[in-house]
Specification:
The protein has one domain: Immunoglobulin-like (Sandwich). It is 14% helix and 36% strand. It has two helices and eleven strands; from the N terminus they run αβαββββββββββ. The strands form two sheets. Strands 2, 3, 6, 9, 10 and 11 form a six-stranded antiparallel β-sheet that branches. Strands 4-5-1-7-8 form a five-stranded antiparallel β-sheet, with no helix packed on it. About 13% of the residues have low confidence.
């Protein structure tokens, strides 16, 4: 049997296309995920303050465990993990990228500073300290934090 060299450019092009398709040639630009992981840290005492005024007790009872209300989860309640003695944290893998999102943290030790225990400071997202810069729905408008997450993981306010 004798092999002949194919000299037709169209046939060569088709053969290359078939080889690439079956060999798994893909575009180098694959779409990135619309979500990313963000680790939130609230630096606050994990034990209840003994110096809260009696007038704050209704708030303390209402807050219960320290928790978060993230906008990308319809502001539902999500308990934070206590890391004694002075930190709470949680990680979410479903934070939308390239979108402004907001959240609120409620902690009973803030009941003398906010009537609903909304935390006003000491909140970090991926090690970036956030400033209280928005309001969130709750018992009326409650203080919260807003930020955007880039596809590269950069947090901006």
């Amino acid at each position: 049997m004798r092999l002949e060299v194919v000299r037709c450019p169209a046939v060569l092009f088709m053969a290359m296309a078939i080889v690439c398709a079956t060999a798994g040639c893909t575009s180098s630009t694959t779409p990135s995920s619309p979500f990313a992981t963000v680790r939130f840290v609230f630096r606050g005492s994990t034990t209840e303050r003994s110096d809260l005024p009696a007038s704050a007790q209704a708030c303390v009872s209402g807050v219960g465990v320290t928790h978060m209300h993230p906008s990308w989860r319809s502001f539902g309640t999500v308990p934070l993990q206590a890391v004694p003695p002075d930190r709470y944290e949680i990680s979410f893998t479903d934070v939308p990228v390239e979108t402004r999102v907001s959240f609120r943290i409620n902690d009973r030790n803030y009941c003398d500073q906010s009537p609903t225990g909304a935390v006003l400071r000491n909140v970090f997202a991926n090690d970036v300290e956030l400033v209280q810069n928005t309001t969130t729905p709750g018992n009326g408008d409650e203080p919260g934090f807003a930020f955007a997450l880039s596809s590269s993981g950069r947090i901006t306010q």
